[in-house]
Amino acid sequence: MSGKTRLLFRRLGELGAQYYNAPYRAAIARAKREEEDLFMLLVFAEMMGVPNPAAWSTLELQPLLMDRFHDWHTRMGMERSPLDHFRCC
Question: Fewer CB within 10 Å, N- or C-terminus of the chain?
């Protein structure tokens, strides 16, 4: 097979995958968002007074997730930051 034929078949395969996955994109995005929300809760649970058995493992992730914290707590329905010592809004 020539290079052009391979490229054509590869492109057709990509288009077919997009076509068949299109109805599920919203469900996949929603599931990913819910998974990220649960992860954020696990990371910041100890700061909100919720016992977290994995606190030592998630403590080092807090600085990395601080920039996404505001979006998370507003999506969870908390108008203000639930952390007393951290104001993000």
Answer: N
3-state per-residue secondary structure call for 11-64? HHHHHHHHHHHHHHHHHHHHHHHHHHHHHHHHHHCHHHCCCCCCHHHHHHHHHH
The answer to whether the predicted template modeling score (pTM) of the entire model surpasses 0.70 is no
Taking residue 8's Cβ as centre, other Cβ atoms within 10 Å add up to 12
Which position has the token pair 């600085």?
63
**The length of the chain, given as a count of residues:** 89
Tokens linked to 15 = 């288009």
- The one-letter code for the residue type at 20 is Y
Contact 22, 47 (CB under 8 A): no
Task: Give the distance, in angstroms, between the CA of residue 63 and the centroid of all CA atoms in the same chain.
Answer: 16
* CA within 13 Å, CB half, 20: 6
